[in-house]
């Protein structure tokens, strides 16, 4: 059985909001009986753009991650829903029935991802429906994918086995896996949102020039976490560190010159200038 | 065929159409009239009587017809009545009285429309995709779209994915890989949000009159913006407007009517300001509000003197860069360049995939911008954040390192340039005693000397592309500041030092230089459309030959600079310098308002979108609108936004989804020649009328036609055509007609231009110049007379070489633009110490990302919900201002707090977005709010709409140029609360 999955590559998301706008275009003022009642003109974020800034000038990053209904295989909302208001379709898509869900605000609160929105006027919970109404008409992909300029959003209708293989191959992750909700929205390069980097600028203590090609070893205790080299601006960056308050030691060297640097992570760190 | 038979056949065709199409029958019933067709000497005639929707006819001369259509002789009549029109013949016949149409405009225009509908009623537009849904197409500033319509209402608007039937896509082989873009057209958020704008709650749906405006009594200009509106009929509104036209022309003389329009608005070749608007007002006579080259500024006033390119207002060649980057380039330096935010103007996200290819290839990126912009966020790389306006110093220090470490192309400099010795002396500080070292620049720019040195060395050693401005070889916020001309000049001077044109060394950021078929022609929006204007559009390049129409010319020679329009009206005088693309010296010639023999402006006719938020020192405009010197203001606009609130009469226009038009995507023409170079596929788009105009709104074309009818200009304006006829005429005059039939085009709605054959691809920009050959770039620039040597030999400079010390600037001796491009500090920036004490922050007002100028902003559009665009606080959507963590902390400002930005020119409230992406000391906000909402008196009080241009200076970059430098703006900010609003009121 082939089922729908969505793969979101955080590295390719550039915060253009096309997916957000297309979803509003699809649902504001439009009623799709059996799928979704109209979205309110303003306020709902069925697809939401989240910003994750890391570091500081001159080593700042801005990374972006769209979030939406995860179309979980174990949907928390479905468990709470009365009257069969939340349905899991055979193709994996979760639909909150716009009629049966009337008055069930608990469905909004049930979602651990904050992806369900309350329609005050219609008194129903609403979420991104993976454009199921369009897929059922023969569309090959949801609109969020169609409008994405970079390919950061792509869908795959494949068997769960094939998807599991893809997850392993591409190192895909889901949000809050510990909840056991089994989302069908997978993320690539999620470390850009939930890990830290440590970076700095290596400067020649004699000439005050940037040092290119210095070797940097990052150690935690005695364990070597990573090694890297500085670029032509003397800059280096070790990414993917756990988001913990942790102590690190850096050993920097070029030829016979060596120096060390201690640091503690409270977020991503730009260490500034390190003279060698 | 005999004329008698043709005339009879024409009537039968109308009858058949009426039998088949009820809409056509309904149109027939609009008037009862007798229309006489005849030869001028009455030797042949047939009249048609339209009575209560029925058609009666007899082959005789009627004694009292309402409308007469005459032809001089049989030959002329037969040619003009043939199904396929020879427009050159028809124009000649009309202009030289070989045919004519007599009768009241109301009827003659109607008869033309009936004749036209007799054909077009049979045409099928859009595709029926089942379920009662028709899929149409349209085109926008942010890309072409498909429009799904059900029951007369827009269901959805999507970008276009290609099918197998569309032509192949080009591919480039480089470094062992093949690069081929996706087979689709991308779209920008403001295109995808179009439906929300069409159905916005502040559409102007009915003609309106300001309640205390009486054209025959008290006009109360001082109450503009305050007094509210009442609904009036179209007839009343149009009559007031045309009566005022006639009155001021008679009482005051020519020039009393001025027309002001925003730069961008809707998309199309018919309903565009350079088309229908220009045609109409040329026929009325108007004072032109002359636009400065607002996107080009430093390139126009500065860079072009070194390397020519006047016809692109100072920016360079646009072919071959994509292949060259993929094959050769090692590093790209983005300098004031954020194509992911500015979309190369109209190119949506077409360049994005190509930049991602560059990333995939491991090409190094450097981003020079005080803001970690969206392109930097996507591509990553090295961030260099100079203090705004100090960029020329940074560039000079890089040049200094090249000079002293011999990291420049000496052969190129020796053979292809002039004046380098003098420039090198300046860099070395031989005359002024100040060598332009990285240390010197560090003090000026705030960029560490070691970073400058590292960049200069890397650049000097590696094949590097300079991505200057969003287009890669032009534009950029750094060209719109006090030092804008210095910066743009430095950009081209640096590329001259690096030997522009050799493999891997050029201007570009993957935005230009796609291997298109550059010989395929479809008119861009600036190529005149239906204006027939050769002087102030790009019609002379191609449209004039390809789509002949009756030329129009404005008899009023008075011109007023847009940047000084408020002063012209309030103080009665203004001076400007021309935006003149034909040569680089045109810009030195001043013009004055009022012009000798002309009337001061009495009527301001505002057309198009909100522009008040895009004009420096915006409050001047609010004050102008309330001036006693301005007796009448018309706003022809779609939404009640921006300055529409200051109009006496509002004429409600519809969007391009409610009227018909045709266009090529991202094709500007004129000084935006070959703008489509940015796309992955060239596309010609049928802009279907997807739905009926909302309320009583009308297309701009229709409004101009209605006004024309009241001035006796109906047939002069329409040339006997409907909007759809114009569309067909443009289509048939273009190369699109060779790719697809009219019938199929109407149905499918778009056609993709096949890519150029690999062997015929346009060459790499400047390779010819670098290699000392004649120019082989497929562009008609410069004009033959602008070459000094033989035609196609050298650049458009006096020497034909790149001039480090430009001859053209030597001649004018302008103290603000010395021939030697020495560094001069900004008049309002990091080094203006007295002002800095009071206003310690620098405002950067970049082009907006989620709206296109003011298009898409405000008006209840879906874009308001984008938190990075506006933020909803207590029921109002506040404009965003991005500030640094440090500046927020020192002022006690928290995330999303309302903040008041202010200086001596005014104050604006925004919602704070605290970020690590701006250099401390900088406030980054967009320049194009569509909302102007003063909390108290307009023109003086605090604005909560978000027009940050209220804070910017209208000082020109030079006393002898008409340019703007809004990025040279110092401000202060503080937390704002509603109590402060009350206090202000």
TrEMBL record, chain A:
It comes from the Bacteria. Transmembrane segments: none annotated. GO terms for molecular function: 4 iron, 4 sulfur cluster binding; metal ion binding. Signal peptide: none annotated. Pfam families: Fer4_11 (PF13247). Keywords: 4Fe-4S, Iron, Iron-sulfur, Metal-binding. The keyword 4Fe-4S applies. Residues 62-154 form the 4Fe-4S ferredoxin-type domain. This is Oxidoreductase. It comes from Sphingobium fluviale.
Automatic annotation (TrEMBL), chain B:
Residues 842-955 form the Molybdopterin dinucleotide-binding domain. It comes from the Bacteria. GO terms for cellular component: outer membrane-bounded periplasmic space. InterPro entries: AhtL-like_N, Asp_de-COase-like_dom_sf, MoPterin_dinucl-bd_dom, Mopterin_OxRdtase, Mopterin_OxRdtase_prok_CS, Prok_Mopterin_Oxidored. This is Pyrogallol hydroxytransferase large subunit. Belongs to the prokaryotic molybdopterin-containing oxidoreductase family. GO terms for molecular function: electron transfer activity; molybdenum ion binding; molybdopterin cofactor binding; oxidoreductase activity; transferase activity. It holds the Pfam family Molybdopterin. PROSITE patterns: MOLYBDOPTERIN_PROK_3. Its cofactor is Mo-bis(molybdopterin guanine dinucleotide).
